[in-house]
Amino acid sequence: MAHPFRRTLIFFGFAGALVLGGCSDGDEIEVTERSGPAKLGTSEPPVPAGQAPPTPSLDTPSAETPPSGYSDGSGIDDGYPDLSPPVLTPEAERGETGARNVLVNFARAVELREYGQAWRFFNDTAKTRWSEKRFDALFAGLRDITVSVPSGRMEGAAGSSYYTSQAEIAATDPDGRRIRLEGPIVLRRVNDVPGSSAEQRRWHIEQFDLSVRP
Question: Residue 69: which residues within 8 A CB-CB, separation 6 or more?
Fold first, then answer.
């Protein structure tokens, strides 16, 4: 459902609905540059002569393994908390519980502006349609984001199971206006058929088609 006009995903002043999920790779996207503050200093006090330097503790923060709650100041993609879905029993994973396990954690990731973690809930089909850069650009400049993923419906077809929720994302745009996006989020898993991989048998988001509503 591509629209033949240029649009910037962070500007929502169009009349009527702007279908975001149907954009093609040819659409132009303006990505807002985000630069964080300088890194925290890592200098340490001098060690007195003849005294060995202290042995680093396992709890000592480092640039490679920042502690929980670490932030570069932007509040975006800090990597904390880890929003990987909890491990379920095989029986629970196969049904609606497994689908919602993924969907709820996706919604939390978007609300916490952990867009990298949210994007990793997509399967290969969705990632082809939504590159990580393009997915980030969708939320550029937005704040006060809330995501609603109500109970949906289960369906099955051709060796796969599908779960659809009519989602809503509300946020404040860079001009201070409240915006609302609505549309289906469809999850899919391959059923326990011979030859399927463990990854294919997990739920992933396959379709993400949200439109701006007045």
Answer: 80
